[in-house]
Specification:
3 helices, 188 residues, 30% strand
Amino acid sequence: MLFSGGGLFFLVLGIVLYIKHNRFVAKCVEIKAVIVDVVDKVHISHNIFGQVEEKRTIKTPIVQYKYNQLYQFQSEVDARNHSLDVGDKVTVLLNPLLPKAARLDVGLTENTMLFKLMIGLGGFLFGLGVYLFNPNDFNLSIFKDLFSAAIIIFIVIYVYIKLSPLLSFLQFMPIYHENAKEVTESVD
């Protein structure tokens, strides 16, 4: 049951993110851009007690592009992994209606692989849960007691009421936020 629930969660989440990603890419236009700077970005991971477990510094490119106006954004990719340096020409994907929501095409490829991995892992875990499911172990005797059944129904309704606004809001949220800002002069 646990494998099925976790697998179904990853499967649905991966599919939703993959669909949102593909919708974003379908609306995008390709713009030629240039890397104007490479800066350090520190990633800090915390343990379950909130203490710093690991600090890792990555090099992220600052990308400049022109779409009616001049924009810059800090990309989320590691410049060292993609051999990106100052002055390199890159391709940026952006929605013409939201020109401040820009992404490097190499970063979008990584996201696609991540979403496919989530779908594959979710499908595997869900299938494993279905394979290991034994109907004889499934027992609904807890619902024979009226008080226990009422508590469970109340909890399910409460959780649904609390989560439904969030879940309905998520379907309209863009997958990628605005990350670019207008600049007045070119750094070239």
